[in-house]
Design a protein that fits this description.
With about 475 residues, the chain is α/β, with parallel strands linked by helices. The protein has two domains: about 375 residues, Glycosidases (TIM Barrel), CATH 3.20.20.80; about 60 residues, Immunoglobulin-like (Sandwich). About 35% of the residues lie in helices and about 15% in strands. The protein is built from 16 helices and 18 strands. The strands form four sheets. An eight-stranded parallel barrel has the order 1-2-3-6-7-8-9-10. A six-stranded antiparallel sheet has the order 11-12-13-18-15-16. The radius of gyration is 26 Å and the shape is globular.
């Protein structure tokens, strides 16, 4: 009898194990089927895309996901195909920043009644797998991602691989994941000489710890598998080892195609086929500021284009921008940095090889610096910028001359013999576009304009060039194409 009972129990156990395995396999198949059903970000998408940086906190008066989600369909009018969400994770309370700069302060440096208004830095994360309740719930986030996918757009998350906030779950459970000083205390990020970078609200991760690397990949994988994000914008990766990304990115891409953007300007993070797709065009950004302030000439522009082609592989991509969250809050508005040259610089970021960026508020002519650690709000009235971005976005999406974002996409200089007249063409697949600009605050003339009949794309007016000589007003620019 005992043998019979034992045999029955063993048989029951084996059946239960088999059923558990079948259920596990079924769940895995459901995940795979769900991932397979999500539209994949392809080369065609990347080649024609505008990327939009969404500052959820400041995008609306409420600062909630749903306020941004309802506006996603109209972003299609601007040619947006990739949405980059600034960090959506909970922010540490410990050492929460209230002000920036050399004399930065923590929220706790202020009277208790004032402390609640200091929301801290998005980049001081307390948990990589949770949603900041300031923005809404995980269900609200999922609705945002679904709405983007339904509108043919893709969502990438802002990931912070270099450091965490001081009350991150890892500090409590895995202090060995962090860099420590000679006293054994976890440190904030340091310069090579041991001095602080001034980011006292975050703790430096230790990439010699392989367990930390594995957990980092696991947390990123959660957002790919469970929340269906389409990639990551990775913050401040210069301090992280290339070897980590050589391990992490292939694992993530094994699940589905992903778009990877690096906040960096070192080509080493883009070598080969399975690392980052795109990184910041910092050098072009700073040059455009200098061109707008007449500190540099068109020769500096062409020299930069040559050096970029030398440093990068042909299929690498740079993100072109006149502003972003850091530049707006810390370096100044587009108007402060570029003045009357701003429209010409904006058009240049679309006409140059690479992917153009729109930062929240830019489409609404935002003219103030957004607060970084407190609640603020962008304007929501369409002015001059929206129709300009709409035209440039359409051109990027539909004209084959701009359909390649890669470094190797063809750009040909037309030498005007003038240090402040920029003229070049972009061509691809039988289509050719020209960009012409007077990069000075004085009227300029030059005499090498090719004869012909052209269409000014932005004004939709034809103009005939019968003589090589042409005159441009201060900061005047033209995006044009040949026509019959």
């Amino acid at each position: 009898m005992k043998k019979l009972i034992l045999t029955f129990l063993i048989a029951s156990f084996l059946v239960a194990c088999k059923n558990d395995k079948q259920q596990t396999d079924q769940k895995a198949n459901v995940i795979e089927n769900t991932l397979d059903s999500i539209p994949a970000i392809t080369k065609d998408v990347i080649d024609t895309a505008v990327i939009y940086e969404a500052n959820i906190r400041q995008y609306s008066a409420s600062g909630h996901f749903d306020e941004f989600t309802k506006d996603i369909p109209q972003l299609k009018q601007l040619g947006v195909k990739i949405i980059w969400l600034m960090p959506v994770f909970p922010i540490s309370e410990t050492k929460r920043k209230a002000t920036g700069g050399e004399n930065s302060k923590f929220a706790t440096d202020f009277p208790e009644a004032e402390q609640k208004k200091y929301l801290g830095s998005y980049y001081a994360v307390s948990d990589f797998t949770k949603i900041n309740p300031e923005f809404g719930t995980i269900e609200d986030f999922r609705e945002l991602v679904k709405t983007a996918h339904d509108n043919g757009m893709f969502v990438i998350l802002d990931w912070v691989p270099n450091h965490t906030g001081w009350d991150h779950v890892w500090i409590k459970e895995h202090p060995e994941f962090y860099i420590k000083n000679s006293k054994g205390d976890i440190t904030d990020p340091l310069h090579p000489d041991g001095t602080s970078k001034g980011w006292e609200d975050v703790a430096q991760l230790d990439y010699t710890n392989m367990a930390m690397q594995e957990q980092m990949i696991k947390d990123m994988m959660y957002w790919v598998e469970s929340e269906h994000v389409d990639g990551f914008r990775c913050d401040h990766i210069e301090a992280t080892p290339v070897s980590f990304w050589e391990k992490a990115i292939p694992q993530l891409r094994a699940k589905r195609p992903l778009f990877m953007l690096a906040e960096n300007d070192e080509a080493k993070f883009m070598k080969g086929q399975n690392l980052f797709d795109m990184e910041y065009g910092w050098k072009l950004h700073h040059l455009m500021n200098d061109l707008a302030q007449e500190k540099k000439s068109v020769n500096d522009f062409y020299n930069l284009m040559t050096s970029i082609q030398t440093a990068y592989e042909p299929d690498d991509i740079l993100m072109n921008f006149v502003t972003n969250h850091d530049e707006n809050s810390w370096a100044g508005t587009i108007g402060e940095r570029m003045g009357e040259a701003a429209p010409a610089m904006l058009a240049l970021q679309y006409m140059t090889t690479g992917m153009p960026l729109i930062y929240s508020g830019m489409e609404y002519d935002m003219s103030h610096r957004l607060k970084f650690f407190e609640k603020d709000s962008i304007p929501k009235t369409k002015g001059k910028m929206w129709p300009l971005l709409e035209k440039l976005g359409s051109l990027k999406a539909t004209n084959p001359a701009l359909n390649e974002s890669e470094i190797g996409a063809k750009m040909e200089r037309i030498d005007t013999k003038k240090s402040n007249i920029l003229l070049f063409s972009r061509q691809n697949n039988g289509s050719k576009l020209y960009y012409l600009a007077n990069l000075s605050n004085k009227e300029q003339s030059f005499d090498v304009m090719p004869k012909g009949t052209y269409l000014n794309y932005l004004t939709e007016e034809k103009f005939v060039v019968e003589s090589p000589k042409m005159t441009l007003k201060p900061w005047e620019y033209i995006v044009f194409m040949e026509t019959d």
